[in-house]
Amino acid sequence: MSSQDNSENLPSEQDPEHGSVERARDPFADPGLPPHKPRVQDIDEAAARRSERVVAGLFMLSMVATVAFIASFVIFPIDKIVYIFPFGHVSALNFSLGLTLGVALFAIGAGAVHWARTLMSDEEMSDERHEIAAPPEVREKVMQDWADGVRESGFGRRKLIRNTMYGALAMVPLAGVVLLRDLGTLPEDKLRKTMWAKGKALINMNTNEPLRPEDVAVGSLTFAKPEGLEEDQHDFQTQIAKAALMIVRLQPENIKDKRELEWSHQGIVAFSKICTHVGCPISLYEQQTHHVLCPCHQSTFDLSDGARVIFGPAGHALPQLRIGVNSEGYLEALGDFEEPVGPAFWERG
Fold first, then answer.
1. Are residues 303 and 321 in the same domain?
2. How does pLDDT run across 196-249, given as a tens digit for each residue?
3. Nearest 5 degrees, angle CA 269-CA 329-CA 287?
């Protein structure tokens, strides 16, 4: 296609006198900037002070909302449900946290936007593009422009805005600190203790009945829970995750570990069912070797030798529970585990 044909596709304009069509001289002409109109705050100091009070008020609102956010953790219990139109029944804690944090962040943003639109410099400038590596004179100009912008924004002169903005920005991160506290209840010594205690009977997990020594056959694997722990209790999963017990009956002469033999009853040994790697429940038992295997990552423990680790990523042996028989002939615990069950944690020593 010729250059003459290409010219026909360029923008054109109509000559009003002769009706002839001419090619547009500059299809990308700079339209320029519209006439500058000063804001009311630029010519009326009273209006500027009103805008200043609005911005400061928004920053103060953010501070109040942040305090309310933190107070919500104290005021509302985690299980409190309230009716709020039009949302319906919602958690009082979650609703108050979302509302107060949203107000705190919105107020800071709205205050900054209103400050920029009404009080900061309104001068319109156009500048030519330059290379990325600016020469020294350009860098000096940029720094000067920055200093001029700070001066024109009133940041140094309008102390009310500056101080309230500092307060709002300093307090909002406190909400994040409080959120870290809500990651869960403080563990205290809960990881070191279970429901097992002296005199608590061993309850068969399948029959929900107390266990007698004769109920445990040689080579069998039985799972037990502490007396008083029922599945309808609200903390059942939390407690069973620490207290789940694995019971095996060995021939006393096959028990290699001296303490294991002392803590057993007629060859019946009780170990934690919770793997010491990542806390999976152990359920696979090899009768001939007396080994138990964790199905998650194949950690293997020798129940005839203190449940020590013989294979896999687990870091330490399964804790053993000292057991005996009560006056009624049922197996019972003689105390709690002497070491924390499950995976290691940073405080464990």
1. yes
2. 999 999 999 999 999 999 999 998 899 999 999 998 898 899 999 999 999 999
3. 30
pTM score of the predicted model: 0.52
Task: Say how many residues make up the chain.
Answer: 349
Instruction: Retrieve residue 343's tokens.
Output: 């995976």
Q: Are residues 200 and 327 in the same domain?
A: yes
CATH number at residue 324: 2.102.10.10
- DSSP state letter for 333: E
Q: Is the separation of the CB atoms in 336 and 193 below 8 Å?
A: yes
Residues 6+ apart with CB under 8 A from 282: 246, 273, 274, 275, 292, 293, 294, 295, 301, 318
- 249-255 long-range contacts (CB < 8 A, ≥24 apart) are 249/216, 249/217, 249/218, 249/219, 249/220, 250/218, 250/290, 250/303, 250/304, 251/218, 254/290, 254/304, 255/304
- Computed on alpha carbons and rounded to an integer, the radius of gyration of the chain in Å comes to 38
Residues 169 and 254 in one domain: no
CA distance 101 to 104: 5
